[in-house]
Amino acid sequence: MGRMRLALCVGALAACLGALWAAAQTPTKRSFTILAVEPKGGVTADKEPFPTAPLPTGGGFVLSPPDAKSQRWEVSAYVWQPSQIIVNQGDEVTLDFVGINGAAHATTIAAFGQTFTVKRGQSTRVTFVADKPGIHGIVCSQHQPSMTGELIVLAK
Fold first, then answer.
1. Are strands 134-140 and 61-64 parallel, antiparallel or unpaired?
2. Same domain, 68 and 83
């Protein structure tokens, strides 16, 4: 009697897992909001000396030297938040980009033929079918190397 119950439980569990797997493989509509933001940090030179090594070039990082009056210096970086989106192959994906910091962000998602500009105070929406599995860049050409995100498309 115990083995029969165990076999029934294992069978029921396998059926449930199979149903969950099938549901995960069914294309769905997925929507995400991505913010264009600029985290900043600053301090006065008496507490931390101004860095002498340069940051990577490309507009993604800004290092402002100490001002004459307060001796405060600042560092910032442009980033997408979140910087990584995960979907399943075949999903219809809608990405709603909202510009918070930075006047404009010329952006591409090359794998899906998307080219657009995200502007401060505006929303830019793109929709496409994620039919190519892999890791695909979400790239702002003006603020490299820091403003690069990833759209990860999981294969069926």
1. unpaired
2. no
User: Do the domain assignments include residue 2?
Assistant: no
Q: Tokens representing 117?
A: 């500009």
CATH number at residue 122: 2.60.40.420
Do β-strands 72-77 and 61-64 pair in parallel, antiparallel, or remain unpaired?
antiparallel
Pick the closest to residue 36 from 132, 85, 111, 105 (CA basis). 105
Q: What is the pLDDT of residues 53-106, one digit of tens each?
A: 999 999 999 999 999 999 999 999 999 999 999 999 999 999 999 999 999 999
For residue range 94-146, list pLDDT tens digits in order.
Answer: 999 999 999 999 999 999 999 999 999 999 999 999 999 999 999 999 999 99
Residue 134: inside a domain: yes
Closest by Cα among 62, 27, 29, 20 to 154? 27
Question: Which residue range forms the structural domain that includes residue 71?
Answer: 40-76
The end-to-end CA distance of the chain, in Å, is: 40
Domain presence at residue 4: no
Q: Which of 138, 141, 146 is nearest to 76 (CA)?
A: 146
Same domain for 60 and 87?
no
